[in-house]
Design brief:
The protein has 13 helices and 13 strands. It is an alpha+beta fold. It folds into two domains: 209 residues, Jelly Rolls; 107 residues, Orthogonal Bundle (Arc Repressor Mutant, subunit A), CATH 1.10.10. The strands form two sheets. It has an eight-stranded antiparallel sheet.
Length: 324
């Protein structure tokens, strides 16, 4: 199966650029449209864009299976409705998410780095939304800022969440959104309203979970600051006692709140960040493996190789030989 880039498929460098084709044609029903024809897909694209929401509908005729390399640093928040066909993403950290036909997924990911595999023709509706607008929208539905902060840190709504079946209500909303007969500015307003309705259906079942806030708003803010600190300092020698003093929280709360909110222990998170950086250096630099081990916080190269193998299922040297 051939692997291609976003540039080769859409002639675009980044996912958000898909909303800005130079040959977009305005359609009277409120969408802009373009057509993609290459050796992999024959595809019609419909798009709607405003300051808070982007709606993107694709109708693919797959000409041959392929893998799409995805790598960008722009935060991604969207709901993906896989109406027909399927989508499978595998990150470089070996985390896999599959969205089968007739399923949807809420996706929140700060950086996308991996591969999408396509094996069938598909119809898919993506609704991208700015985080601040999403929070404002959910505030109007009774969700507090504290609820939203905690909920968006928990595993309930992150990128690696199990896909859900598209409901009958959602099917009707999708059909209305795509196939309506309204015109001009009224059509654009209709698209925006239906997109918001679809977003709210995704969160409608979460209110019971959101009503049970385990950690205080201050605890959540501390954990967010701690995670940001670890993202910048994972290569240093870190100790729980030092972190508790620095962030003004006891060890019991630090351990339990971090695991509840992020789904893993503090040191598991640190190790994952170290390994992610190490893999990046293996790909992008000519540094010796022992230097990479030292730069990413491992004292001994043999220990680094063992941890690397346990996580990625191959040694650093094997990985480097595969990409060279």
């Amino acid at each position: 199966m051939q692997t291609i880039t976003l540039k080769e498929l859409y002639d675009k460098e980044e996912l958000p650029d898909l909303f800005y084709f130079t040959d977009l044609q305005y359609v009277s029903n409120g969408f802009s449209a373009t057509v993609i024809n290459n050796e992999f897909v024959s595809c019609k694209l419909l798009s709607y864009h405003d300051e808070a929401i982007d709606v993107f509908y694709q109708d693919w005729n797959l000409l041959q299976p392929f893998r799409l390399r995805i790598r960008h640093n722009i935060p991604l928040i969207k709901v993906q409705f896989e109406i027909e066909g399927n989508s499978c993403f595998e990150s470089l950290n070996n985390e896999v998410i599959n969205i089968p036909s007739k399923h949807y997924q809420f996706i929140q990911i700060p950086k996308a780095d991996g591969y999408l595999t396509y094996t069938s023709s598909r119809k898919v509706l993506d609704i991208h939304i700015k985080q601040q607008y999403l929070f404002q929208l959910l505030n109007t539905q009774g969700y507090s800022e504290q609820h939203l902060k905690e909920h968006f840190l928990l595993k309930n709504y992150t990128f690696y969440r199990k896909a859900s079946i598209i409901s009958e209500q959602q099917k009707r909303l999708i059909q209305d959104l795509i196939q309506h007969s309204y015109q001009s500015d009224f059509a654009r307003e209709f698209i925006r309203i239906k997109a918001i309705e679809l977003i709210l259906t995704v969160f409608s079942g979460a209110s019971n979970q959101l009503s049970k806030v385990k950690w205080s708003e201050n605890d959540v803010d501390i954990m967010m600051n701690l995670r940001n600190f670890l993202d910048q300092n994972f290569h240093k020698e870190l100790h729980l006692k030092t972190l508790t003093r620095q962030f003004g929280i006891n060890e019991f709360k630090l351990k339990n709140a971090f695991k509840d909110l992020f789904g893993e222990t503090v040191f598991s998170y640190i190790r994952k960040q170290r390994l992610k950086k190490a893999k990046d250096l293996l790909i992008k630099s000519d540094l010796e493996i022992k230097e990479i081990a030292f730069l990413t916080g491992f004292k001994y190269s043999h220990h680094f190789s063992k941890v690397y193998f346990n996580h990625y299922k191959h040694l650093p040297s094997e990985h480097r030989s595969q990409i060279s």
